[in-house]
């Protein structure tokens, strides 16, 4: 029996059910529109993206999934991230609820097939980028902390050679494209607030790593941008 198997418990099962079933299907659960192809495309991407990325990450970095599953209980997480991490995690569900309500009450005129296809491509690329960051970085925790218990050191390969926070960068593109894919102008409002919280978290995390993680300052001089090459 592996360590990961030993750590499976009812709480983890509930978390997986929420991540793999409730959240991906939220737009259809709220709207009742079970023939909505864009929502099904989004749900399938969420489910497959989560499962495939976690399988690949656990094979490459045993122990990473345990770290992530216990993230919110870490005592050495930065105090500000004990607020921001759950805010971002649970805040990402709100646009999906708004999307479902928008579909139910017809608040937004559909953006059209071209917008759906382009936004679907962006969502796919966003999931691929986030998965790449997860697989590349064995310290990809759910909270910001210096993982001295896991021999924390700087990761500079893969997407981390392009920007310093590729996981967050990929999430931002996914968040932006999702309301367009699901035809909801009103869902863009909480989405922009969510992105603002994510940018704040990126800034605070980067400052923490430069101050506390050996070698990160030197890495930041070589990989200049946090989220978007040429801008920030």
Which CATH top level class fits? Mainly Alpha
Overall residue-averaged pLDDT value: 91
The fraction of residues in strands falls at under 5%
Task: Return residue spans where pLDDT drops below 50 for at least 5 consecutive residues.
Answer: 1-6
Decide which structural class fits the backbone.
Answer: mainly alpha
Distance between the termini: 45 Å
Share in helix: 55-70%
Number of DSSP helical runs: 10
Gross morphology? globular
Number of domains: 1
N-to-C order of helices and strands: HHHHHHHHHH
Radius of gyration: 18 Å
The CATH architecture is: Up-down Bundle
Largest sheet: none
The total count of strands amounts to 0
Model description:
This protein has 232 residues and is mainly α. The chain has a single domain (3-222), classed as Four Helix Bundle (Hemerythrin (Met), subunit A) (Up-down Bundle). The protein has helices spanning 3-6, 10-31, 37-60, 64-69, 81-91, 94-105, 113-136, 166-181, 188-212, 216-222. Helix 2 (10-31) packs antiparallel against helix 3, helix 5 (81-91) packs antiparallel against helix 9 and helix 8 (166-181) packs antiparallel against helix 9 (188-212). The longest helix is centred in the last third of the chain and has 25 residues, at 188-212. The chain is globular and about 50 Å long. It starts with a helix and ends in a 10-residue tail after the last helix. Residues 1-6 have low confidence and may be disordered.
């Amino acid at each position: 029996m592996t360590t990961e198997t030993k750590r499976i418990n009812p709480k983890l099962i509930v978390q997986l059910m929420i991540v793999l079933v409730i959240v991906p299907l939220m737009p259809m659960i709220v709207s009742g529109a079970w023939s909505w192809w864009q929502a099904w495309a989004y749900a399938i991407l969420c489910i497959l993206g989560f499962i495939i990325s976690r399988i690949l990450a656990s094979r490459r970095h045993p122990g990473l999934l345990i770290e992530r599953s216990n993230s919110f209980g870490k005592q050495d997480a930065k105090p500000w991230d004990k607020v921001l991490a759950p805010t971002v995690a649970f805040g990402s569900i709100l646009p999906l609820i708004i999307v479902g309500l928008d579909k139910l009450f017809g608040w937004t005129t559909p953006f059209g097939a071209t917008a759906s296809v382009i936004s679907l491509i962006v969502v796919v690329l966003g999931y691929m980028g986030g998965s790449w960051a997860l697989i590349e970085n064995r310290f990809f925790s759910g909270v910001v902390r210096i993982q001295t218990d896991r021999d924390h050191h700087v990761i500079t390969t893969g997407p981390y050679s392009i920007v310093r926070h590729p996981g967050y960068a990929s999430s931002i593109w996914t968040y932006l494209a999702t309301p367009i894919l699901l035809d909801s102008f009103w869902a863009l409002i909480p989405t922009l607030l969510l992105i603002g919280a994510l940018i704040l978290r990126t800034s605070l995390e980067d400052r923490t790593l430069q101050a506390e993680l050996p070698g990160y300052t030197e890495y930041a001089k070589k990989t200049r941008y946090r989220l978007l090459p040429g801008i920030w």
